[in-house]
């Protein structure tokens, strides 16, 4: 029953995300922050829960989370404009974190809602997915079942957000739709909670891959 409940919740969250994302990849918004907005965004983050997941500031500012993420310095965020090949490459790197690795997951339809799974196994790529999709399943067949439409993933960012005192940090990989809203976030740590040491090590490897690709807003 637990697996069915998780599946129903994820299906609701992901379908809501895709319902709001109906534009073709050629129509992707340019989600790179202006200099004026960059100052405003960074000031807001500094004053409101620095180190917390960016979805919180995104809702407060009423801007797409990808646009907000583009304001961060390279020490806090690296990211790319995605295509099906890059999206598959990055998810394969998350897959390599390990089937038994605990992670946190956040589904955030239109950046206005949040479905949070504080501790869950890594969703692993499945063979036989329909062309244009990634299929993932976690924890054997008893966890999350996810179906990602590749043409509707347009930005991917890794974020390493430190608290003001530097004692904790939020580390995650987030996949965004063409409107700049988050589709799914996979987290190694959220604020003061480290999900697992294996996830932190995996996050560092995926960060390195993303940082080595042409950056979204350069």
TrEMBL record:
It comes from the Bacteria. Residues 1-24 form the signal peptide. Pfam families: ChuX_HutX. InterPro entries: Heme_Transport_Util_sf, HutX-like. It comes from Kordiimonas pumila. Keywords: Signal. This is ChuX/HutX family heme-like substrate-binding protein.
